[in-house]
Amino acid sequence: MLKREPLDLGLIFESLNLVAWESDSAGLLHLHGPVSAPLREQFPVLDSDPLQLQGQFRFLTHFIDTANDQTDGVWAQSKESGISSGTWEEDDGAGGLAPFCAHAFVSQGRKFLVLEKLGTAYQDQKSVLQVARVGSLAYEELQRAQEALQQSQQRQESLLAELDERVQARTTELHQANEQLRQEINGHLQTQQALLDHQEELRTLAERLVLAEEQERRRIAVGLHDDLGQALAMANIKMGQLASAQPELVEEIGEVRLLLKKAITRTRTLTFELSSPILHELGLDAALENLVQQFGARAEIQTRYESEAPQQVPEKTAVLIYQAVRELLHNVQKHAAADKVVVTCEWQPQSVQVTVADDGRGLSTDPAGVRDSFGLFNVQQRIDHLGGSFLLQSAPDRGTKITLRVPFAEATDGEGGA
Predict the structure, then answer these.
(1) Are 289 and 310 contacting, i.e. CB atoms less than 8 angstroms apart?
(2) E strand or H helix at 376, and its extent?
(3) 374-385 and 315-331 helices, crossing angle to 10°
(4) Is a pLDDT exceeding 70 seen at residue 259?
(5) H helices within 135-191, ranges in order?
(6) Non-local CB neighbours of 126 within 8 Å, separated by 6+ positions
(7) Structure confidence at residue 111 (pLDDT)
(8) 179 Cβ partners below 8 Å, 6+ apart?
(9) How many C-beta atoms lie closer than 10 Å to residue 38's C-beta?
(10) Residues contacting residue 359 through CB under 8 Å, at least 6 positions apart
(11) CB 97 within 8 A of CB 91
(12) Which residues make beta-bridge pairs with 355?
């Protein structure tokens, strides 16, 4: 595999108001982008390059040592990808404590450290916990916590229902547009130029639909993470404090905390399933690699991802390919009964070709069979509307190989890339 082109992570982290470093071959951490003025004034040691903590940030020093552990650390030489996180409080020099969160991760062998100073919402939540710790909480508070959990679960179900309705509505719009196009072709062959103009409009609609769906997914995923996820996490912590204050309720509180942990885990899973942050922060290649790894772990199927010389592609192209590969992997898990899946990505100057191959039971290659499979038909239609190609190769008990080729032009001003 050829060396990955370097990503402009400094610009990404600066836009997110984070401080980031990358580790070099000697283990020194070098800044990725500038440190914000408030952090630089309050903690000038963070502006050093390479990073030299000089006795400050002891937890961060321990966190970095743990990440470098060659046995279990996320930065171990044997690891090509992974992430770990930790939170703590640092003396702000004015008699108070400043909360921080650190993330260590590795992508294609490159080691990164990201530091985030948590905001006032965290301090407000911490004050509530301190009051709860010294107070005498009654059984009614446990009841209210259970009601809050139920409300959170209801909100989660409402968000999922809202997403499903929006996706179905936009899918219906696309199918209606396709049907209208087929009718016009059959009924008005003599108006060739008008047909070409209408095809261009449909292509634009397909691009907007891909981006609109992804934007809606991102909005709901952010809501799940920032609102529901944080509320569940704080409720779980509060239950722990309540258990310490009310030993006679330990068993009941334990049951509630178990439900909270399940809800937190499911919320995190839904957040990544709705919209992958890796796709928008690190690009299509890293997102596909993570998608394949997560699919293999979840479906208990042997997987491999192959890619050479990845490059930046327009956002609409990256979103379309990521959604298409995710749908194809879902079909493998649901129908193929496969033991092994290989995803290959080939990068061309103005196109991307992705192949998803499995060793499962195979399926029909007849076009009517593709139409009967809504997932494959949906992928094929979206690829076609962006001027790409969809090739299905399969035979009974000999597996299936699907090749997608999507062209793209250079990203224009105002159009993002991934």
Answers:
(1) no
(2) helix 374-385
(3) 160
(4) yes
(5) 139-187
(6) 99
(7) 85
(8) none
(9) 10
(10) 338, 339, 340, 399
(11) yes
(12) 344, 403
CA distances from 328 to 168, 274, 286 (A): 19, 16, 18
The predicted structure's pLDDT at residue 136 = 45
Q: CA 281 → CA 12, 18, 84, 407, 418, distances in Å? A: 7, 13, 17, 22, 8
User: Is the CB of residue 338 less than 8 Å from the CB of residue 363?
Assistant: no
Question: pLDDT tens, 169-206?
Answer: 888 888 888 888 888 887 877 677 776 666 566 666 66
Beta-strand ranges (E) seen in 265-323 are 302-308
Contacts 24+ apart (CB under 8 A), 116-119: 116/18, 116/19, 117/39, 118/87
The sign of the dihedral angle between the CA atoms of 214, 215, 221, 224 is: negative
Window from 8-12, 67-71, 355-359 with minimum mean pLDDT: 8-12
Provide DSSP, 24-56: -TTS-EEESSPPPHHHHHH-GGGG-SS---TT-
CA distance 90 to 88: 7
Which uninterrupted H or E stretch holds 207? helix 192-223
For the sheet containing 97-107, what is the strand order? 29-31, 19-23, 110-117, 97-107, 81-91
Q: What is the pLDDT of residue 374?
A: 66
Cα 10–chain centre separation: 19
Long-range contacts, stretch 369-375, CB < 8 angstroms, 24+ apart? 373/331, 375/327, 375/328, 375/330, 375/331
Mean pLDDT of 64-70: 83
Q: Can you count the helices (H) and strands (E) in the chain?
A: 13, 10
Would you tell me how many other CB atoms lie within 10 Å of the CB of residue 259? 18
Instruction: Give me the residue label for tokens 């009654």.
Output: 138
Coil, helix or strand at residue 233: helix
Report how far residue 54's alpha carbon sits from residue 57's, in angstroms, rounded to the nearest whole number: 8
| Beta carbons of 390 and 383 less than 8 angstroms apart | yes
